[in-house]
Design brief:
By secondary structure, the protein is mainly β. The protein has one domain. The protein has two helices and five strands; from the N terminus they run ββαβββα. The strands form two sheets. A three-stranded antiparallel β-sheet has the order 2-1-5. A two-stranded antiparallel ribbon has the order 3-4. It starts with a strand and ends in a 13-residue tail after the last helix. Bound molecules: zinc ion (ZN).
Length: about 80
Amino acid sequence: MGMLMIKCPETGSAIPTGIEMDGERFRCSAVFFSRTYCRICAVTHEWFAKEAWVYESVLAKGKSGGGQSFGAGAA
Ligand SMILES: [Zn+2]
């Protein structure tokens, strides 16, 4: 799992959308539209999925095992 990120259109900074999603699943997902509150601009930006990307956190990569059987076959 990673955090869905978008680029702030005003400042160009990457801001987290608060949506957690698997990178592979995100690529396969249909195009969607959403809104995210930007703390830098103090406004809500509207964005499309094609403008977003998944930031895979170190935490997500660090955990292995645990009996999760779905999504086996990464890489
Ligand atoms: Zn902004």
